[in-house]
Design a protein that fits this description.
V-type proton ATPase subunit a1; five-stranded antiparallel sheet
Length: about 800
């Protein structure tokens, strides 16, 4: 049997890739190119040999700073391109290759040009805005002054507040209460200030002026004909032109200070109409010149940004890679005397790292090659599974619980089938399954398009699990055909029913029941069970027993995988012994009693269910004997392992058993004190307590985990009953009315309930319960999940993380 198992070919994804711990000795002249080539290979995980140093104490800190500065400039270019409404090239444009120094010079030149262009454009825009405001003030304020000279104020604001005191009424009386003679403002003693202010500040501005002058002013306003662009934010702002009439130098000083505080721009307006027209002509002439200058500046700026945008993606990738290379070089030790860099790390045994390093040595014209040395390591290697688009989502589901220990049996191999199938057992409805299938097919059809877009968190999760959704929908259709439910409605898909009414009237079909008159329905549940008096007891019995069968089968699979793990590692008893003894003890004192205990109780129960389904009669086998076997299995799990461990440990230090002789330098260093260390570390009471906890946990878990699989029955029943309620109490009830509006409302409510409750909430619920069954009930039989992921230095991973 063991020889047969050894001859089986290895299964992909069953165990992580074999890793080796390597040491690299790289000459300084080829170090940058060698690490860059390793980044393109993406199969070497470096160890940080300078973890005791701060980032500013490392060798290549200046190069990292330079790359960081170039990244800042590239982000500035990207912001400017987006602000201008231009599109940068998504795909890198082919062009002459640049080294880092040339790129740094180019980026500095482009940044200086853009900053200078933006500064000039901002100044020109500010001048243009001032002239535009001056033009509008001349036009509007001139109208106010003409009206004043014509004995009436055309547009004025009646102020409701009249602030005064009883003691000095004569000083605080409003100018509006005085008799103003007709004539020019300078003849009547009036003066005015004209300007422009943001529309949102007008009300507060007016109130402040009234209070500061104690009502001795006249405020006229008119909306500006054009919006003004803010040169800083590039937003259009609505403004209002105002003219304030007042008397006295003190009032003038107050009004000017208030204008400055509110950000109002004041412009002088002549009362002479001829001068006004002449100034307006000059302003319009300067405005047209500034418009031409601004347009030319914008065209020049957009042309520069467009040329940058063609190469922006390529430059960002280049800088990102260079920075990653220097960050990796900072993890290596720099040997000053030998002028080389020493690095350590993990890589899979299939990685062709030596060929890559030889190519880097040749391309850099180095006289000394890179030394690639495989070493022994005391630490556990990282875990690396080679996945594709289909298996990656299932591997992520398993890794969310815990990354597999190095070369531990991978549950993702079985989760590819068992996870969507257990989901479908709870979600079985081939109508709902078709809806999920359509959604999965849309995501798969748009795979290339969506993979290049930035998606939201929910949509990204859905797109990442598109193949999981595909299998869940296919298994849901299969289980729905078994349950014979299409949106809770049964169909005679595989032929006629095996039951019929007792008479032609079928009056007692739902009271006395039906009569079987031919062979059973060929596939799935007979549609005649629908609506019968024994529908619920029959479906409850079917789904409950099916849940027990599926649970016991999956838990047995987990126990069997624990045997293969023990056999693979050859360390079932946590000692280094010969493989025959290890396999014998592991199978005899761990795997066998667990299998006996589980199947003596729940395996026997499953067998009785199958016998009853096949024969229709109840069977009572040797249940007393099986109960005795289950009772014996508990001390079998508990006692032998700790005592055998102690015996083998004692024999080792009496010279009766010898381990494998180590040949590495690390073994030679550890060997003199290793016996004393092992002897001191061995604690029989601790091992016994640990084994007792493990045994009790398995015994109690066998009962609780089997009961936990009944959630398959509960959620399947809940999903079926919810579908029935929405169909009968919403759709059929609305369809019973001879009213089109009621029917449409009922159809809309049914569609809403189906989409958001059955297809979203129920899908999420069944997904989480299937996740729980795999993480807790299945994986705790064999899966440790205390490893750590293989995170190689890879340019592809760096680009994905940046995106």
């Amino acid at each position: 049997m063991d020889r047969f198992i050894d001859d089986l070919p290895p299964m992909d994804l069953m165990r992580s890739e074999k890793m080796m711990f390597v040491q690299l000795i790289i000459p300084v002249e080829s170090a940058q190119r060698a690490v860059s080539y390793l980044g393109e290979l993406g199969l070497l995980q470096f160890r940080d040999l300078n973890s005791d140093k701060s980032p500013f104490q490392r060798t290549f800190v200046n190069q990292v700073k330079r790359c960081g500065e170039m990244s800042r400039k590239l982000r500035f270019f990207k912001e400017q391109i987006n602000k201008a409404g231009l599109q940068s090239s998504v795909h890198p444009v082919s062009g002459p290759d640049l080294d880092l120094e040339e790129l740094e010079i180019q980026l500095a030149e482009h940044e200086h040009e853009l900053i200078e262009t933006n500064s000039n454009s901002e100044k020109l825009r500010q001048t243009y805005n001032e002239l535009l405001e001056f033009k509008m003030v001349l036009q509007k304020a001139g109208g106010f002054l003409v009206s004043s000279n014509g004995h009436a104020v055309a547009e004025e604001t009646e102020l409701s507040e009249n602030v005064y005191s009883m003691n000095d009424y004569a000083d605080t009386a409003s100018l509006l209460e005085q008799d103003i003679r007709a004539g020019p403002s300078n003849q009547s003693g009036l003066r005015f200030i004209s300007g422009i202010i943001c529309k949102s500040k007008v009300l507060r501005f007016e109130r402040m002026l009234f209070r500061a002058t104690r009502g001795n002013m006249l405020f006229n306003q008119a909306p500006a004909d054009e919006e003004i662009m803010d040169p800083v934010t590039a937003e259009m702002v609505e403004k209002t032109i105002f003219v304030v009439f007042f008397s006295g130098e003190q009032a003038r000083t107050k009004i000017l200070k208030i204008c400055e505080a509110f950000g109002a721009n004041c412009y002088p307006v002549s009362e002479d109409l001829t001068k006004q027209r002449q100034i307006i002509r000059e302003v319009l002439s300067r405005l047209s010149e500034l418009e031409a200058t601004l347009d030319a500046g914008i065209r020049h700026r957009n042309k520069a940004l467009t040329s940058i945008g063609f190469h922006l993606t390529k430059w960002m990738n280049m800088v990102r890679r260079e920075k990653a290379v220097y960050d990796t070089l900072n993890m290596l030790n720099f040997d000053v005397t030998k002028k080389c860099l020493v690095g350590e790390g993990w890589c899979p045994i299939f990685a062709k790292a030596q060929e890559v390093l030889q190519r880097a040595t040749f391309d850099s014209n180095s006289q000394v090659g890179t030394i690639f040395h495989v070493m022994d390591s005391m630490e556990s290697p990282p875990t690396y599974f080679r996945t594709n688009r289909f298996t990656n989502a299932f591997q992520e589901i398993v890794d969310a619980y815990g990354v597999a220990r190095y070369q531990e049996a991978n549950p993702a191999v079985y989760a590819v089938i068992t996870f969507p199938f257990l989901f479908a057992v709870m979600f079985g409805d081939w109508g709902h399954g078709i809806c999920l299938l359509l959604g999965a097919l849309v995501l798969i059809a748009q795979e290339r398009k969506l993979s290049n877009q930035k998606l939201g968190s929910f949509m990204e999760m859905l797109f990442g699990g598109r193949y999981v959704l595909l299998l869940m929908s296919l298994f849901s259709i299969y289980c729905g055909l078994i349950y014979n439910e299409f949106f809770s409605v049964p169909f005679h898909i595989f032929g006629g029913s095996a039951y019929r009414c007792r008479d032609t009237t079928c009056s007692d079909a739902y009271t006395a029941g039906l009569v079987k008159y031919r062979e059973p329905y060929p596939f799935g549940v007979d549609p005649s069970w629908r609506g019968s008096r024994s529908e619920l007891p029959f479906l409850n019995s079917l789904k409950m027993k099916m849940s027990i069968l599926l649970g016991v089968t999956q838990m047995n699979l987990g126990i069997i995988l624990s045997y293969f793990d023990a056999r693979f590692f050859g360390s079932s008893l946590d000692i280094r012994q010969e493989s025959e003894v290890i396999l014998y003890l592991g199978a005899r004192y761990q795997f066998v009693p667990q299998l006996i205990f589980l199947n003596s109780l729940f395996g026997y129960l499953s067998l009785l269910i199958i016998i009853k389904w096949c024969t229709g009669s109840q069977a009572d086998l040797y249940h007393i004997l099986l109960l005795l076997l289950a009772t014996v299995a508990v001390p079998w799990m508990l006692f032998p392992k700790p005592f055998i461990l102690r015996k083998l440990h004692t024999e080792r230090f009496q010279g009766r058993t010898y381990g494998i002789l180590g040949t590495s330098e690390m073994d030679l260093e550890v060997e003199p004190d290793s016996a004393r260390q092992h002897h001191e570390d061995f604690n029989f009471s601790e091992i016994f307590v640990h084994q007792m906890i493990h045994s009790i946990e398995f015994v109690l878990g066998a009962v609780s985990n089997t009961a936990s699989y009944l959630r398959l029955w509960a959620l399947s029943l809940a999903h079926s009953e919810l579908s029935t309620v929405f169909y009968e109490k919403v759709l059929l009830l609305a369809w019973g009315y001879d009213n089109l509006v009621i029917r449409l409302v009922g159809l809309a409510v049914f569609a809403f309930a189906t989409a958001f409750i059955l297809l979203m909430m129920e899908t999420l619920s069944a997904f989480l319960h299937a996740l729980r069954l795999h993480w807790v009930e299945f994986q705790n039989k064999f899966y440790h999940g205390d490893g750590y992921k293989f995170r190689p230095f890879s340019f592809a991973l760096i680009n994905d993380e940046e995106d």
